[in-house]
Amino acid sequence: MIPLSWYVLVSAALFCIGLFGVLARRNAVAILMAVELMLNAVNVNLVAFWRYGEPQAMAGQVFALIVFTVAAAEAAVGLALFIAIYRSRDTVAVEEIDLMKG
Amino acid sequence: MAELTVLQALGPLSPQLVLLLAALLVLGLDLAWGEKRRGWLPSVALLGLAGTIVATMSLWGRREVLFGGVFVVDPSAVFFQVIAVLATALVILMSIDYFEGRATYTGEFYSLLLVASLAITLMAGSTDLIMVYLSIELLSIVSYVLTGFMREDRRSNEAALKYFLYGAAASATMLYGMSLLYGITGSTNLEEMAAVLGADAGGSMSWVVLAAVMLLLVGFGFKVSAVPFHQWAPDVYEGAPTPFTAFLSVASKAGGFAVLLRFFLTALPDLSVNWVGLIAALSVMTMTVGNLMAIFQKNIKRMLAYSSIAQAGYILIGLVCWRHTLGAYGGGISGVLLYLLAYLFTNLGAFTVVIIVERATGSNEIADYAGLMRRNPWLAAALFVFFLSLVGIPPTAVFVGKLLIFSSAIRLGYYGLAIIGVVNGVISMYYYYGVMRQAFFLPPKEDTPIVASPPLAVALGVTLVMTLGFLVFAQPFIQLASWSTL
């Protein structure tokens, strides 16, 4: 069987790629995709810990289910906000959305 | 504490159920009533909140564990429920006239506001990571929508986008910390985690626990707007509809503190990692950066945003002093609770003045507060009282909170924190004085008097009385806070 540490490493890598995407990407939709990568890292962690810990207790699996359900709701709200922005400015590039600063 | 069955649990859960019903009722009536009777919706929402308060009162001083340890009702949870409901009621009063001519679909605003209030009451009682995450996320998602509520307003849109992107990243980071904690302890229940972590204190896993706690602090720090997770706050406060800005600054922040207290005091009380040091560092940064940045602001909503960041820093000192429980009023933790309640009345009062001025002048620039005293002396005097309270001058409300928190810090020997806190209080006088100088000593740009509409006048009156008479009127809360040692 593949050792647990491999899953944790994959998850950590996914999380770092996602975090890099959040900090480096300029397009709001791309940032949202990077956040989804971070959430996937969380899910890999949760399911792996559940499988290698106590598979009878369902907490980890339920947590993972809830995470991606909420992620879907969050994405729906986020995309709606992006559309509202796009309608008024014709862009979702974050460096151009700068009415307020300081 | 005996566990309750699902049916028995409906009793202790009644405040949440009433809030949920009220939110759905407002949404349904908005649909059924249509354009004509929409003006009644705020009253329906206020009635729902009154029902919630009655339900909350029946839980005064009780301790119950529900659903196998996922949710608890105890004095601190009840205290945060009271904060959430009071804040929501005052914010509804402030919104009634604010949206006139700005947004058409106001029914949804009240409904979503009630859901946000529900989320905070859930955050206050969550004792399981899954429930903590769900309730934080419920508050966040509703907040993104409410921030961008004025769809035609470019600033409102922009604020919502920034809030969403920061919030999504912060909550993903927090979740990663939660997944690590779950991996280490094999449980999502805070009490069970405490048992495992306590057994492993100083052991081989403690560095992972520390890393996980720091990741969690990103999410919690985002909610309470602690530096360095505060960058969203000024832009969101400026762009959001002003009543919702007020809600964010007191209720949403209180929800963040509810989770922060619950997590640290339930899951990590035995110092298996040195989280007190982390919180102290966060507190110093938050106070100092918040106050220094507030000095440069030209927009009063931005200034209040930075001031609200700084206040979070003072409140964090109370968490550092959680061990201090001496004295009739309790110590650090009851200091945090009372500070949040006092801050609720004071800051909502200040925002009520901001809304009244915004309705008259159409502006939030501090320069447009010039001559406020000639245009409406009561308004200027009220703003003066609220600012005195924000600085912490006796006998105003926030003074009580500051007294409790700073005296706890001194008793426990955190002299450095107390001194930095007091110095920051002095710095904050400078930018509050900047507004007062405009209001009292400079000539007005126009001579038309500023009038407060009835709902706003009620909100102003309540907050003013509570700010000045906090010690008199808040006795029951002071007692409740003293039970809330968790």
Question: Can you offer a commentary on this structure?
Answer:
The complex is a heterodimer of chains A (102) and B (486). With 102 residues, chain A is mainly α. Chain A has one domain: Helix Hairpins (Orthogonal Bundle), CATH 1.10.287.3510. Chain A has helices at residues 4-24, 28-52, 59-89. In chain A, α2 runs antiparallel to α3. The N and C termini of chain A lie far apart (54 Å). Chain B is mainly alpha-helical and 486 residues long. Chain B has a domain at 277-486. Chain B has 21 helices and 2 strands. Chain B has helices at residues 6-9, 14-33, 41-57, 75-98, 106-125, 129-147, 154-185, 190-199, 206-224, 232-239, 242-267, 275-294, 300-320, 332-361, 372-375, 377-391, 397-411, 415-441, 454-468, 470-473, 475-483; strands at residues 64-66, 71-73. Chain B has a two-stranded antiparallel ribbon with strand order 1-2. In chain B, a hairpin with a 4-residue loop joins β1 (64-66) and β2 (71-73). Chain B starts with 5 loop residues before the first helix and ends with a helix. At the A-B interface, α1, α2 and α3 of A face α6, α7 and α10 of B.
CATH topology of chain A: Helix Hairpins
Assign the CATH architecture of chain A.
Orthogonal Bundle
Nearest-angstrom radius of gyration of chain B?
21 Å
CATH class of chain A: Mainly Alpha
β-strand percent of chain A reads: under 5%
Mean pLDDT of chain B: 90
Distance between the termini of chain B: 14 Å
What is the first-to-last residue Cα distance of chain A? 54 Å
Q: From the helix content, strand content and strand pairing of chain A, which structural class follows?
A: mainly alpha
Give the number of helices of chain A: 3
* H-E string of chain B: HHHEEHHHHHHHHHHHHHHHHHH
Low-confidence stretches of chain B: none
The tally of domains of chain A stands at: 1
Mean pLDDT of chain A: 92
Low-confidence stretches of chain A: none
The dominant shape of chain B is globular
Number of strands of chain B: 2
| Strand order in the largest sheet of chain B | 1-2
Secondary structure: helix percent of chain A: over 70%
The string of secondary-structure elements of chain A, in order, is HHH
Query: Which sheet architecture does the biggest sheet of chain B show?
Result: 2 strands, antiparallel
